[in-house]
């Protein structure tokens, strides 16, 4: 891949395990969306960030009638041939340079709350990320206060829930942000052990994920709104059943991949460039006196 200039866009879509095996937007039959470029690579201070796409949404499908472009990041920025947890920092640096203000990220979840079942779509309101993201984008400790409150965009979450309610399969529920669910983070790629699942539940987590909390934190650090589109592929009973080595319910994954990919594009088209909830105000510059003298 050849490094190219970073386009200026307001919106970004992050694909993940919810969409593996589906090329977005090419494989999604949705009028009004056209691929402009794929296989884009952008140079960052920590090396290249690869596997990007740029697509166009026609004004006929956007909420304000304006034609708009969006960046699409493959699999949370993960390289295709090795594990590299620093990939998130490179990817979000690209989003920062692009001027992205609203981010929709697709992934799958494990549920440690027995009321949440495989096949449910769950929009958490908060995260547990005890490492506090070792790969930060903030320019030092003294220049910004990055609040941990309202880390999931309520406006985007409501848009997602409303559109999901209309298309999500009967018998599977949509858990909105008003339920106050908490997503616990572990980096992976190994899936969570039964003991770890119990530990996260004790800490107050309802669902588990390998990317959501990291991306929510980085979105806060670049002043962008963040909302996750994530559905459950393993329940608490799946975690605790030590009689089998299997964890994920593959039929759930295969049954929801295309639906969630189509839903993601519909949600992105329904987002205004500027979020009315004021998520960007949660990143507050500090007075110069706090870092200019030492």
Automatic annotation (TrEMBL):
One of its GO terms (molecular function) is S-methyl-5-thioadenosine phosphorylase activity. It comes from the Bacteria. Coiled coil: none annotated. InterPro entries: MTAP (IPR010044), Nucleoside_phosphorylase_d (IPR000845), Nucleoside_phosphorylase_sf (IPR035994). GO terms for biological process: L-methionine salvage from methylthioadenosine; nucleoside metabolic process. GO terms for cellular component: cytosol. Keywords: Glycosyltransferase, Transferase. Residues 89-244 form the Nucleoside phosphorylase domain. PANTHER family: S-METHYL-5'-THIOADENOSINE PHOSPHORYLASE. This is 5'-methylthioadenosine phosphorylase. It comes from Paracoccus shanxieyensis.
């Amino acid at each position: 891949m050849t490094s190219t200039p970073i386009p200026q866009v307001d919106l970004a879509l992050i694909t993940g395990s919810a969409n593996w095996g589906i090329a977005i937007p090419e494989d999604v039959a949705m009028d009004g969306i056209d691929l402009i470029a794929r296989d884009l690579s952008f140079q960052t201070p920590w090396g290249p960030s690869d596997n990007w796409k740029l697509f166009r949404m026609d004004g006929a499908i956007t909420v304000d009638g304006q034609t708009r472009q969006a960046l699409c990041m493959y699999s949370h920025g993960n390289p295709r041939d090795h594990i590299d947890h620093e990939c998130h920092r490179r990817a979000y640096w690209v989003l920062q340079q692009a001027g992205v203000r609203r981010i929709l990220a697709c992934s799958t979840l494990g549920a440690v709350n027995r009321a949440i079942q495989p096949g449910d779509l769950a929009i958490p309101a908060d995260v547990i990320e005890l490492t506090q993201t070792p790969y930060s984008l903030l320019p030092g400790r003294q220049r910004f206060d990055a609040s941990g409150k309202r880390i999931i965009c309520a406006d985007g979450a409501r848009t997602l829930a409303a559109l999901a309610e209309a298309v999500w399969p009967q018998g599977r529920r949509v858990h909105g942000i008003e339920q106050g669910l908490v997503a616990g983070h572990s980096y992976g790629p190994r899936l969570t052990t039964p003991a770890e699942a119990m530990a996260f539940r004790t800490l107050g987590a309802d669902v588990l994920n390998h990317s959501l909390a990291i991306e929510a934190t980085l979105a806060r650090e670049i002043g962008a709104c963040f909302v996750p589109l994530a559905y459950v592929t393993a329940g608490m009973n799946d975690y605790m059943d030590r009689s089998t080595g299997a964890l994920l319910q593959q039929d759930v994954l295969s049954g929801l991949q295309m639906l969630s990919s189509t839903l993601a594009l519909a949600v992105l088209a329904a987002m205004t460039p500027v979020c009315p909830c004021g998520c960007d105000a949660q990143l507050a510059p500090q007075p110069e006196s706090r870092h200019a003298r030492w």
